[in-house]
Amino acid sequence: LRLAQRRYKEAIEFADADLKTNKDHAVANLAKGQALLLDGHADRAIPFLSRALKSTNTNDSFIADLLSRAYISNGQYSEALEPTLLMLVYSDLKDAEATKNVKRRLQMILKKDPFARSEVLNVMEIVQKRISNPDKSAYAYLALGDILDLVGAKKEALVAFTRGLENKPGVGRAYLRIGIIKEEEGDSRSASQYYEMAYRYSPKDRETAARLYRIANRSNAKLKLDLAFQLKKRLRALSSGSQVASDPASSLQLP
Question: Are 68 and 80 in contact (CB under 8 A)?
């Protein structure tokens, strides 16, 4: 109530009363940290919010959000990685807007601090220990792969995509992104293999079909010639909005 009324000094006083008897009191640490942050003292809020996050066993994205904001306000971008990745892991997959905001924040951190790029996968390993849901873990790694790809950290993006696919192998977009990175590296053979996998799982995706069609026409791509013809017909169908089979992949003879 005091925080809602912006009575930050009173909120801190009440929190201090509980912290005198128990310095790890989760609620008191959260209240004091939030009050300090809202009152413009991000640097002083950090230790209390950090203690609050460690003191709770719940997947509390709210505390992680506050700690992430405090670090960013204080210019500590690398330190903001862990709570921001926790926010990503704890994200409600059905809340598209909230998930988008987390991705934007993480992208900003990685752009601001080059060191954060080299550390993000190590931090992600630490974060993963707090969850036991394979789907959540897979989603977080795949989302992280997209973000790393966007900021130009291609090597790290490959690792993130690969780890995500270990728990959720049916995500066509992840295979597509790996294929694109491999093609940019000049490895057409590997790229074609990943494009094939992407097509198997996402046969209605036009970008996947287009990239597989283009690479099928290259002399060094080991794809059957008739596959290029079939893909060309599929691309025409997708472009015109024509109906395709319920399982289009079954009608194509992929090598």
Answer: yes
